[in-house]
């Protein structure tokens, strides 16, 4: 029994070392999951890896293990907003008479030791370096200490990265944007310049397209129609903008805000024949950015995305559609799409690959060019 325990512990520790330090998997804490370890990496081919040291002695117990695994995976899928989730179950103590089967979204292998990996070509397709990385020169207590030290070091590095992203930072750009909006609002209402600003700086398609006053695509977002309009937008900007600025950084946040503002204005002038004002298009872009960021960090923000971000977006879009044209919902939609696209192009720290960022940047540019082309060639007044 002692030899069996030592063997199972050894293979489990080698697997943990590989998946955590080499493949960026993170442990999942599950209630009632005994003699098994769950690891997740939502960006990997196998989003879930299970290391099962519990003794599987017959087909019925194996079938129950599959049932339990599917049940837990459904919960993780909902929590992390994953559209598809597959798992690799690694059994370290299973009877020879139990026939392992790969079922939908769950692949199963049995390892007495790492040499058994050669029996599973599909594992090498996903993890071609697994045998090499599980080969250690250390033995016994030295091996245990090395694996423990490496895992602890990797966990510490990951904790530092998460702290770097989520540590609150002063939202100076957000303060600056609110200050600009405030100064313009004061000029409009306290100094009697409302008509002047609306006539010369609102987002009005006729003047933009016919008179080529393209600056209106930006300036209209800094004008507000009344005190309620101003307070609501600035409060939303403070709440959402300060989060995005903290998560993404000031430079990226500035680009996201301006790009969302621009894409919202462009979609607005395509479908809206009236002058449009207000920061809500840009704010919807920040919501889109937060949605994309939250998806990448959904292990931490999955509940917030479902309970707050998505409902806010949906409710405000519905209100816009029911407003009878008093709310420029096209600016909201354009800003939302623009915020998601440009955040893809800029990338989420420690998460986005260069491939994703390049594609996001290209699509963002094409999106704006397409909207501008439609506006200049097909919108008639």
Ordered list of secondary-structure elements with their pairings:
Elements lengths: L1 H21 L3 E3 L7 E5 L7 E5 L6 H21 L7 E5 L14 E5 L10 H6 L3 H4 L6 H27 L5 H18 L4 H8 L3 H5 L6 H4 L7 H22 L1 H22 L8 H17 L1 H25 L6 H18 L7 H25 L3
Parallel strand pairs: 3-4, 4-5
Antiparallel strand pairs: 1-2, 2-3
Helix pairs in contact: 1-5, 6-10, 10-11, 10-12, 11-12, 11-14, 11-15, 12-13, 12-14, 14-15
Entry keywords:
alpha/beta; Rhomboid-like fold; elongated
Description:
The chain has 381 residues and is an alpha/beta fold. It folds into 2 domains: 2-165; 188-378, Rhomboid-like (Rhomboid-like fold). It has 15 helices and 5 strands. The protein has helices at 2-22, 59-79, 121-126, 130-133, 140-166, 172-189, 194-201, 205-209, 216-219, 227-248, 250-271, 280-296, 298-322, 329-346, 354-378; strands at residues 26-28, 36-40, 48-52, 87-91, 106-110. A 5-stranded mixed sheet has the order 1-2-3-4-5, sandwiched between helices. The N and C termini lie far apart (85 Å). Mean pLDDT is 92; it is low at 1-5.
CATH architectural category of the largest domain:
Up-down Bundle
Q: Strand portion, in percent?
A: 5-15%
Question: Radius of gyration from the CA trace?
Answer: 27 Å
Globally, the shape reads: elongated
